[in-house]
Amino acid sequence: MMHIKELQKKVENIRRRLDPEVIEREKRIEKTKGLVKGAAIGSIIAGATALFLSPDSGKNNRKKAKEELEKAKEVLETNLNEGREKLSKVYELKKETIEAKKNMLKEKLDLNDNMNIIDDIDLEEIEEELATDEY
């Protein structure tokens, strides 16, 4: 027998899969993954082809490959650090935005609670007036 929570999860999963925005986002993600895989495979094939067709000796090829790998490593480290910084900035900005919206929502809820109290008091007065009025 399926529990209600499991059923709710399955229904939510089906809803998400039928949502056109989610479908489009998943398609873009898959295309991006395919592009990255293609670029990686292409780079490997190009590198291997360059090594095999190079007129230099093996020693020179290894030296060049090592230098290029060092350059690539530096670029990756730089990009990774920049990505971390940007992600951190975005995280902080989103955190501040969420906090501001949370506080605004709390204020509205407090205001609504106070309004409800006033409404309840007004409602009681109206009920008393109606009870004393004769028709």
Automatic annotation (TrEMBL):
Stretches that traverse the bilayer: 34-53
Lineage: superkingdom: Bacteria
InterPro entries: YtxH (IPR024623)
Keywords: Coiled coil, Membrane, Transmembrane, Transmembrane helix
Entry coiled-coil feature ranges: 59-86
Keyword Transmembrane listed: yes
Protein name: YtxH domain-containing protein
Organism field: Alkaliphilus flagellatus
